[in-house]
UniProtKB/TrEMBL annotation:
The chain crosses the membrane at residues 20-40, 60-83, 138-158, 164-186, 242-270, 276-298. This is Helicase. It is found in: Cell membrane. The keyword Transferase does not apply.
Length: 581
């Protein structure tokens, strides 16, 4: 989809109006620079004509000084204008980067399933960087240089009509030619951007999975695909660069032809006595000058063509709408809350449902243990309650309210989620625990660490809470990372806790700590524990066993444990016999 003119106008207005003073300054500087460009040759003409006068009375020095002042003024305006436009471009693109990032962070998880992070980085950084010139200069450069072009032609028409006519015809022909060749490069630059996005997407995914790739010995497979992506990028870039020689060499050729025409015309007019030497020089000078605006306009149009593909992609991204809509907002009380699933079915794709007709109810403060084979839909229940997705049918109630009427920000405050994969950042322990929330003071963090029995761990940190963690939580064991995730939830103090228990093996000491932490975390809260070990569900009031997304068994834990025919008691017996053969 290409953008319409009003959409371009809106885009420019959105990012330029907030810095209108700077845009105005740029317009003034740029306009003055153009005016000085036109005045300079006129002073030279006067200088030359005066210099060749037989009976010259006036001194040439003031004219020469004036020319110098005008030239210096033009150069200074040019530098100042370039600096100002650079700032406009950076500010506008940075604001756009922020808007894009903010927008992307609000999109559904289903969007992230379809787009690799590396590809999104390329959109936010690469594509937006292409728009710097569009925001900063495009409109003014095109309009200004058009004005300069017209100005040169009008002046020459007035001063010598033969020259005016010749220049106008020549400008039209050369302009059309330059414009045609400038379009040639656009598709090849689009291909370069796509090759970049593909390569970054590939790299990001493979670097993220480096541990698995090494352990499964898939390095050579990855390297081969890296080579294929890099090769494609190399050849598309090479092709684009070679084709880009055209828009550069055609204006050079026109420029050479123009210079010859200028010489011939000036020589003929001067030889025929139709113009003075100063005027002959002026004709030559204006023909030379004519090229600069033509080349700048063509460069701007070429740049705009390249930017168009980026604008379209950025605009498309900005218009991706979350399928889930925030409700008007609900204030949940900060105490344990009841949770209810009513006939909930859901699939990550619209066609294939992964959970079917789930119905269960947790009283406030009740703990539900969810069991089931891998892929049976346990984590999906957690994602639905956290409203990372909406059910395809049925509804989920929290404290009697349909989740869809709540704002997602309300839910994030009310529900704490500890997943199997704990995301840690290359930041201080404090920032990792508080999620960069500066309102949480150290005393609260230490109280949470004490509550969870992590003071010993804390005392071993070389710089206390200021200790920086390595990227991706490197240096921490899986158990420690899990404990940090518990501290996070503790600090959030939610009414409902969802605990997707880690299935990884932990050493007995960490496991004991984790067990204590779970007890403390669940105290006074409604909780859903997705359990991989039966020992975890001993604290559950009720048990739900899933099989292929359907409830196979659901009831009070004590009753199910007592019933010898229940699936749960069967599981208990199996584990027991495995432990004590
Ligand atoms: N993001 C996703 N996109 C598409 N399908 C998914 C996605 N996440 C899970 N699934 C599918 O949904 C089904 C249920 O997955 P879910 O993660 O809920 O299982 P689980 O019981 O939690 O498994 P595990 O015990 O291995 O964590 C599986 O068939 C899985 O392949």
């Amino acid at each position: 989809m290409q953008l319409s003119l009003p959409e371009y106008r809106r885009l420019l207005a959105t990012y330029l109006i907030p810095q209108w003073r700077r845009v105005l300054l740029f317009a003034l500087l740029f306009g003055t620079e153009l005016a000085l460009k036109l005045i300079g040759p006129q002073i030279l003409r006067v200088f030359l004509d005066d210099a060749t006068l037989a009976d010259r009375h006036t001194s040439l020095i003031p004219i020469a000084v004036l020319f110098l002042v005008v030239t210096l003024g033009q150069q200074s305006m040019g530098v100042w204008a370039a600096y100002t436009s650079e700032r406009i471009g950076w500010r506008a693109t940075n604001a756009l980067r922020i808007d894009l990032t903010r927008h992307l962070l609000q999109l559904d998880l289903s969007f992230y399933k379809e787009h690799l992070p590396g590809e999104l980085i390329e959109r936010i950084d690469g594509d937006v960087a292409m728009l710097g010139n569009f925001f900063a200069q495009f409109v003014l450069q095109v309009l200004g240089n058009l004005l300069l072009l017209v100005g040169i032609l009008v002046i020459t028409w007035f001063q010598e009509w033969h020259t005016g006519l010749a220049l106008t015809l020549f400008a039209l022909l050369a302009g059309m030619l330059i414009n045609v060749v400038s379009q040639v490069t656009v598709p090849s630059w689009q291909a370069v951007r796509q090759a970049n996005a593909d390569l970054y997407g590939f790299l990001e995914e493979r670097l993220g999975g480096t541990e698995d790739i090494r352990s499964s010995g898939a390095e050579s497979y990855v390297m081969r695909h890296f080579f294929l992506h890099a090769r494609r990028r190399f050849f598309t870039t090479l092709r684009a660069r070679l084709i880009s020689v055209l828009p550069w060499s055609v204006p050079q050729l026109c420029f050479a032809i123009g210079t010859v025409i200028a010489f011939l015309l000036a020589a003929w007019l001067y030889g025929a006595g139709m113009v003075s030497l100063g005027m002959a020089f002026l004709i030559y000078y204006y023909i030379q000058m004519l090229f600069l605006p033509m080349i700048i306009i063509s460069e701007q149009l070429e740049d705009f063509q390249k930017a168009r593909a980026s604008v379209t992609r950025v605009y498309d991204l900005l218009h991706v709408r979350s399928r889930m809509k925030d409700g008007p907002g609900v204030v949940f009380p900060s105490c344990a809350l009841p949770v209810e699933f009513v006939d909930v079915s859901f699939g990550y794709d619209d066609e294939v449902m992964v959970v079917h007709h789930l119905s269960f109810r947790l009283q406030a403060g009740e703990v539900l243990g969810v069991l089931g084979r891998t892929g049976s839909g346990k984590s999906t229940i957690a994602r639905l309650l956290f409203r990372l997705y909406d059910p395809a049918s049925g509804l989920i109630r929290l404290n009697g309210t349909d989740l869809r009427t709540a704002a997602r920000a309300d839910l994030r405050k009310t529900i704490g989620l500890v997943t199997q994969e704990v995301q840690l950042f290359e930041a201080s322990v404090r920032d990792n625990l508080t999620f960069f929330d500066r309102t949480i003071d150290d005393a609260r963090i230490l109280a949470a660490l004490t509550d969870l029995g992590m003071l010993r761990w804390y005392h071993h940190l070389p710089q206390g809470l200021d200790t920086r963690l390595a990227p991706n939580g490197g240096g921490l064991s899986a158990g420690e990372a899990q404990l940090l995730a518990f501290v996070r939830v503790f600090l959030k103090d939610p009414s409902v806790v969802i605990l997707d228990e880690p299935s990884s093996r932990l050493d007995p000491a960490t496991e004991r700590l984790l067990e204590q932490a779970i007890d403390k975390l669940l105290y006074g809260r409604t909780a859903i524990i997705i359990a991989h070990r039966l020992s975890t569900v001993k604290r559950a009031d009720s048990i739900l066993i899933l099989e292929e997304g359907r409830i196979r068994e659901y009831g009070a834990r004590i009753n199910l444990a007592r019933d010898p025919n229940s699936r749960f008691s069967h599981l208990l017996r199996t584990v027991h016999s495995e432990v004590q053969p």
